[in-house]
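Recall the central idea of this unit: under ordinary conditions, the amino acid sequence of a chain determines the structure it adopts. In this exercise we apply that idea directly, starting from the sequence alone.
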Amino acid sequence: MILIGAGTVAILIGGFFLGVQPSLQAAAAADAARQAAFATNQVNQAALDALESQNKKIGELTGDLETLRLSVPSEQNMDSFIDAVDAAAAAEGLVVQNVSPADATAYAPQGASAPAPQPSATATPAPSATPTPTPAPGAAASPAGAQAPAVHTDPSISAANFLAIPVKIGVGGPLDHTIAFVHRLQTGSRLFLVSGLDGGVDGGAKSAAGGSATAAPTAPTETYSVSGYLYVLAKAAAPAAPASK
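Accordingly, the structure predicted from this sequence is:
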């Protein structure tokens, strides 16, 4: 009887090791695999959610890219810029006398210590029927040694991928209209950096031959020259003979 009982126990123990334990190990492995798959699914779902969110903004991002391409194109597109100059001048009642771009040159960031561009001292405001207003008491005047704001530079923009095109634009008309014209160019689709404004009032010319003292002079005229820069992506742009108007 004792031998029979011992044999039964041995059979049960052997059955456990041969049948039950492998099943338990397989179940544990399957559970670990399920947990790993669940964690992987969570990571993939987060990535999918991020892609869906970005896809909803693809129209906005595409519009931003197109705006940037118009602002700094891969070609000089001077004809398009001249059309923009004509439209801005017409809107302000000015006469475009010339648009003269120079050869494109490698871009060089402006030094942080360089002063901000200022209109030339030769520019004379148009004559006005009203006197120049006196600053209100207590108004702060700009100090003579005022520092220009710090210039922001981006190391990703360099001579290796950017070209600058110097441009001069001559217009005829009042100074206030010329300033409004410059503002239109600065806020247009093409990036245009204004670096100078020169010109003033021409006293007019004698209408009679020989310029006799009794001849009535023509009305004074105002002409101004706007200097600035256009920019082009260098990797696709090749400096070409400048267009001129």
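The chain has a mean pLDDT of 72.
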